[in-house]
Amino acid sequence: MLTTRRSAATAALAASRPGRSQRFQRTPCAHEWTRGFHTARAAASPPSEWGPPPAGTPVFACMSGGVDSSVAARLLLEQGYDVKPVFMRNWDTLDEQSGSGGCEWERDWDDVRRICREHLGGVEPELVDLSREYWTHVFEPALEEWAAGVTPNPDVTCNQCAQCNFLFFFPPSLSPADSLPDRPVSQYLICMLPRIRHIKFRILPERLLGRAPDAWIATGHYARLLPSPLNASVPALYRGSNIRKDQSHYLSTSPLSALQRTLFPLGDFASKDAVRDLARRWGMHTGDKKDSMGICFVGVRKGFSSFLDSYLPSLPGDIITETGKVVGRHDGLWRYTVGERARISGLPEAVFVGKKDPKDNTVVVVPKHSPMLRCTSIETSDFSWTSPDHPPLEASTPGGFVAEAQIRSLPAGALSKCVVTQRQGSAVSIVLENPLVGVSPGQTVALYKADWCLGGGTIASTRTLADEST
């Protein structure tokens, strides 16, 4: 009943080639570079097309103890692969200054072992301990950025980010871009994302594939890999069929070398309910397991701010209005997110975080409709194109090329039309057609043409309507 989804992938590729989307009009320069490349490719001898490996290939199935990775691993088994389950542990509770636990990784590990025992033929999963690498490459550098005022965004999905249990996704935005929520829009640690990708898609593959050069890696991400429109012998990253759960945004800076031997078995599933239904049909106990919504290394004992108090010293400063009037005090810039509501008593109207100034150690609050909250353009200093054939030539011209951007302040699955221009080195300038709320340095921006993910980078700076009026 469950076979490989190659026919679905082929149909999806045909449907998502340049020119398919009618969601907005593109100028010729927005797609001629792909069309011309296709023409050149057609004239040459075509290389073998990238695709999933044959049955019997060893595949490391990255598991978290959740329903997504459980179903993904079972699908691989049904498709005839030699499934080798692995569980990645990224946090050592002894690293907590309190000296006590709080991480639920042991429970997740038990769930993984049970799934393997009952539904994967009794194979014993492997526990890969990357807690030292996580501390060095993710948490310790992130502390420096938090201390410098980079957006911390205190609510984190445990098994999608902090513990990195192979199920990372961006939760739906709490509000449309033209409205402002009463709490932080995002639920993940923005400044940790590039380093988490370093752990999962660089260090982990090196460790696993280094000892098994013929093996592949599979995860429970909602994303798709199809032959690239630019070079069919390598994969291109596409949004998952389940747009609300799509995780290609998170994967947008992953190196091609990592994606070359990666499988996303859930990429063609249209809904999370379909995944849960399949798990229940197979009798998996994870079919009814709730998605974790806490930080694995914080646990339920305390909130994220209290957790960071153990690592970051208090650095009080003023909360001011646009005119410089002091209306409150803060204990550290890292506690505040641009675009979130600032709960300050005694003011005649609700105010929101419009800016954080590390130089003066101040938080600037503004009314809901302030131009300071509406971002018009973005600069990145480390943009990564997913294909070596990128960027398109038009990116280096003054007019740039038309694409669509995904930023965490957008509703789930939504993209924002933009014009992209390549700057010096890996820097990219992105001008938004419509201003967006809640965009700030440290966040990730990904670029798309229809469902095809061109790449991603970390926002280095932004301009707002307020900047343009000065």
Structural class, from secondary structure content? Answer: alpha+beta
Strand content range: 15-25%
Largest sheet: 6 strands, antiparallel, barrel
Radius of gyration: 23 Å
Give me the strand/helix succession. HHEHEHEHHEEEHHEHHEEEEEEEEEEEEH
Helix coverage percent: 10-25%
Q: Helix tally? A: 11
Mean pLDDT: 77
Largest sheet strand order:
13-17-16-15-18-19
Spans where pLDDT lies below 50 across 5 or more residues: 1-45, 97-102, 152-193
Query: What characteristic shape results from the CA principal axes?
Result: globular
The end-to-end distance, rounded to whole angstroms, is: 63 Å
Count of β-strands: 19
Q: What does this molecule look like?
A:
This protein is of the alpha+beta class and 470 residues long. It contains 11 helices and 19 strands. It has helices at residues 6-15, 32-43, 67-78, 105-119, 131-147, 193-209, 248-251, 256-259, 272-281, 304-309, 465-468, and strands at 58-63, 82-89, 126-129, 216-218, 223-227, 235-239, 262-263, 317-320, 326-330, 341-342, 351-357, 362-367, 374-380, 384-385, 401-406, 416-422, 428-437, 444-449, 452-464. A 6-stranded antiparallel beta barrel has the order 13-17-16-15-18-19. A 5-stranded parallel β-sheet has the order 3-2-1-4-7, sandwiched between helices. Strands 9-8-12-11-10 form a 5-stranded mixed β-sheet, with no helix packed on it. Helix 3 crosses helix 9 (272-281) and helix 5 packs antiparallel against helix 6. The protein is globular and about 65 Å long.
